[in-house]
Amino acid sequence: MKNLVLLFALSVMAVTLYGQNPNFEQGIQFKRVFTDYRTVQGDEFSKFRSYRPTWEVGYNRKITDNLNLVVPLRAGVFSNSSEDANNTSFFSVDAQALYYWHEPTWLFRPFVSAGIGDVKEYGGDFVPQVPLGLGVYVKMNDRAYVQWKSEYRLAFAEDKTNMQHGIGFVYQFGPRKEMDEKDMMDKKEEVEEDEMIEVAVDTDGD
């Protein structure tokens, strides 16, 4: 338990997830995640009935315009047995770095992620895992995004490596970031260009 608390505390102190829109510093996300232990063990990926439900909540904070850290908390069940009724409850916390590509006009914003996590199984020990993920954000407005993400989670224990797939909602909050000097110069140039076009139109139209 001490390992889990320490990882969570360090992660929150360090900072956290996502800054899809660079104008906002923080965000929070909620996801429905499906855990898949069986595919990695040789079962068929298409056996979706073997996937188990998990819930995730994460707090987000921007590092740079393209690089962020994420601290997702998850709770749910998994099954690494061929018996469908054999479920194990678990709780986990990760610290992940997330790099994404974006332009102001993009509706879809792809990203990749990597980090370290700790998983506590009911009645079992802590199992460290290394999550490697990829996904995409779909813009709804300046503050809200839909997120899809898939992870391959390499575990430091036998038969614990797994995959997790999730879809959810990200909301950014806090004050808008002030424009830096480069942004202000770009905005000034745009305004000057618009004024020049208006003058040219007025001259030709009179």
Short account of what is shown:
By secondary structure, this protein is an alpha+beta fold.
Radius of gyration (Å): 22 Å
Number of strands: 8
Number of helical regions: 2
First and last CA, distance: 78 Å
Which structural class fits the helix and strand makeup? alpha+beta
Description:
- With 206 residues, the protein is of the alpha+beta class.
- Helices cover 18% and strands 50% of the residues.
- The chain has helices spanning 2-14, 181-205; strands at residues 24-36, 52-62, 67-78, 88-100, 108-121, 126-139, 144-155, 162-176.
- The chain has an eight-stranded antiparallel barrel with strand order 1-2-3-4-5-6-7-8.
- The longest helix has 25 residues, at 181-205.
- The radius of gyration is 22 Å and the shape is elongated.
- Residues 4-20 have low confidence and may be disordered.
List the helices and strands and how they pair.
Layout: H1 2-14, E1 24-36, E2 52-62, E3 67-78, E4 88-100, E5 108-121, E6 126-139, E7 144-155, E8 162-176, H2 181-205
Antiparallel strand pairs: 1-2, 1-8, 2-3, 3-4, 4-5, 5-6, 6-7, 7-8
